[in-house]
Amino acid sequence: MIQDIGQGVYHNEYRPVPPSPESRVLSYRGRELLLRWEGSHISFLTYEEVALEVPEMSECWIYLFSMEDTSYYLLPELPAEAFEGASWEGIQTLRSAVPRVEAFAGVTGLQLHGWYRSRRFCPACGRPMVHADKERMMHCTVCGQIEYPKICPAVIVGIVNGDRLLLTKYADRDFKRYALVAGYAEVGETIEETVHREVMEETGLKVKNLHYYKSQPWSFSDTLLFGFFAELDGDPEVHLDDHELALARWCTRDEIPEDDGISLTREMMRVFKNYRPASERADCDGEIR
Question: From the centroid of its chain, how far is CA 233?
Fold first, then answer.
C-alpha cells in the first residue's frame, strides 16, 4: 500500500526547526505537485535550490515531517521555470511513482497543504489563525478557536458469501474499476456501526462476524480507512443504491481481476482472491494438508 515505504521511517512528530540545505521542499498548485520526473522516478527540490533561485520565498516554510534523517517543508506555489527539469504534475502520478518514500511524502504533504490553506482564517470569528509552537495546530488569538488537521474516518468492507466476494463499481465517477463497499463514519456511531450502515445503505445486505483487517491513511481524500471483512447474514440478493453504485456483483476468486494497486481496497481484493482453505494448501514438503 502507499504507506509501505520499505526501510524508511516516517516521523510525523511536530518539530518546526529551520530547514537545512538538503531538506526537501513540497510545493503545490491545487492538486499538482512541483517535482522532477524521469520515467516513474520522482525527486523534489531541495531547500538549497529554492534559497538560491527564489530567496524571497525561501523563508515562507512550514515544517511538515521527516523521513529517516530528511526533513520535508511546505512552501507556497513556486515558479517551476526557475528550476531546471522541474514541472507541475498531477497528484495521481504518485500512485505509481518511485521511490515509494517520496511518493508517500508527496501525497501526505498534500493533505497538510490542504488543511493549512483552509485554516488561514478562524472559522468562528474570521480573524487570522496562528501556528502553534509545540504541536501541529492552528489557533485564534482573539476567540481561542483551536483547529487540528482534518482526518475523516471511513470503512472499506469486503462482504464474503462462501467463496464469493461482493465487488462494486461507483456511480457517476471517473474511477471505473471494481471496488468494495465503502463510506464515511457519521457523528455518534462506532466504526463497526458504520460497516453495518454503509453495507445496508448501498446494497440492502446484512452482515455478521466482522473481522478487522487493517487500516490505511489515504491522504488523497484526507481519509483514515478501516478495512473489514464481514460475512453475509441472510439473503444474498442485492438491492442497489444507484445514487452511490453503478454495479454490485458476487465474484468468485477466479473472477476477481489481478490488480497490484496501492490502496487498501486493492490489497483486500488480492487477499481474498489468493486465499486457499487449509485443506488445499501444500506444506513445506509439498504435500496437501
Answer: 30
pLDDT at residue 285, rounded to an integer = 43
The tens digit of pLDDT for each residue in 210-222 reads 999 999 999 999 9
Other CB atoms within a 10 A radius of the CB of residue 248 amount to: 23
Residues 241, 247, 251, 256: is their CA dihedral positive or negative?
negative
| Residue ranges of the chain with per-residue pLDDT less than 50 | 283-289
Give yes or no for a contact between 227 and 156, defined as CB atoms under 8 angstroms apart.
Answer: yes
**Block residue for cell numbers 462506532:** 190
pLDDT in tens, 248-272: 999 999 999 988 888 999 999 999 9
Tell how far CA 131 is from the center of its chain: 25
Coil vs helix vs strand at 7: coil
Residue with cell string 464469493? 164
Q: Which residue has the cell 522541474?
A: 86
Structural element, H or E, at residue 72: strand 70-75
Q: What per-residue confidence (pLDDT) applies to 253?
A: 95
Q: What one-character DSSP code corresponds to residue 14?
A: -
The DSSP bridge partners found for residue 111 are none
What is d(CA 7, CA 66) in angstroms, rounded to the nearest whole number? 14
Q: Say if residue 16 is preceded by a cis peptide, omega within 30 of 0.
A: no
What predicted TM-score, i.e. pTM, was given to this entire model?
Answer: 0.87
Residues 6 or more apart from 169 whose CB is under 8 A from it? 176, 177, 178, 179, 245, 246, 247, 248
In the prediction, which pLDDT does 279 show?
A: 57
Q: Count of CB atoms within 10 A of residue 145's CB?
A: 16
Distance, CA of 64 to chain centre: 16
Those residues with Cβ within 8 angstroms of residue 232's Cβ, 6 or more apart along the chain or in another chain: 159, 160, 161, 205, 206, 207, 208
